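Moderator note: this is an archived Q&A kept for reference. The question asked for a predicted structure of one protein chain; the sequence and the answer are reproduced below.
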Amino acid sequence: GSSEERHIAMYPTMGMAVSWDGERLEDRPFVVEFVRDHNSRLGMTLCLNEQNHLAVKNIESTGLIYADGRLRSGDVVLAINNVPVSGLSFYQAAQLLRSCKNKVQLTIMTPCS
């Protein structure tokens, strides 16, 4: 099957998500929020990594996420606007992200190195 059909695996998260406090810990997810208008783009592409987790593939230098500076390529996305992505297909997760109008909240996990 193609990656479009693969379903996103549950991430074995240890701690509850916390608001971003500037510190990355491998077992603690954090939440980042972006507010965009119709002119601005998030500027990231997503992929499924080897573990079938939804991950940040690329961050474009023209987007909000790059300007914000908190996300990195390889970061795992656990939830979009508080909707867990585990069990969704990649296509469904992409649709969920597209459906977010002006506020996008991402729950992110730093992958184990």
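Archived answer notes: The chain is about 15% helix and 30% strand.
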